[in-house]
UniProtKB/TrEMBL annotation:
InterPro entries: 4Fe4S_Fe-S-bd (IPR017896), 4Fe4S_Fe_S_CS (IPR017900), RnfB_subfamily (IPR050294). Gene3D superfamilies: 3.30.70.20. Pfam families: Fer4_7. This is 4Fe-4S ferredoxin-type domain-containing protein. SUPFAM superfamilies: 4Fe-4S ferredoxins. GO terms for molecular function: 4 iron, 4 sulfur cluster binding; metal ion binding; oxidoreductase activity. CDD domains: DMSOR_beta_like (cd10550). Residues 5-37, 38-67, 68-97 form the 4Fe-4S ferredoxin-type domain. The keyword Metal-binding applies. The lineage of its organism: Archaea, Methanobacteriati, Candidatus Hadarchaeota, Candidatus Hadarchaeia, Candidatus Hadarchaeales. Keywords: 4Fe-4S, Electron transport, Iron, Iron-sulfur, Metal-binding, Transport. The keyword Nucleotide-binding does not apply.
């Protein structure tokens, strides 16, 4: 989540599940895996928290868990995202992307682009 307090906006930055993820390629411990159904995920038995994946992620979709110093990639809680459940304003909605039309996806991206332009982000 990127917070822009000056304009009152929080913009989620999530893993885009790249087709050929740089994060997996650069991981010296082979801790980042790609699964057809799960997408990109972390094998926490292998992750040593070197942060190489954070450095190469082109969108900043990988974070660091301050508690255990290991990286985190949002996996949408395997289809049951807790952020949606816990949002006090009920501003979040989880929609399976496969059920969205191309038109709806384009509209969403256009709204985000317009917001970013207005906010000068």
């Amino acid at each position: 989540m990127v917070k822009y307090e000056e304009i009152g906006a929080n913009i989620p930055v999530l893993c885009q599940k790249c087709e050929d993820p740089a994060c997996a390629a650069v991981c010296p411990m082979d801790a980042i895996k790609v699964d057809e159904s799960l997408g990109t995920y972390i094998d926490y038995t292998r992750c040593v928290g070197c942060k190489m994946c954070i450095l190469v992620c082109p969108i900043g979709g990988i974070g660091l868990n301050p508690a255990n110093k290991k990286v985190i990639i949002c996996d949408l809680c395997k289809g049951d995202p807790q952020c949606v459940k816990s949002c006090p304003e009920q501003a979040l909605e989880y929609v399976d992307v496969s059920k969205l039309s191309i038109k709806k996806r384009r509209e969403g991206l256009e709204k985000l682009a317009k917001f970013l332009e207005v906010a000068k982000i």
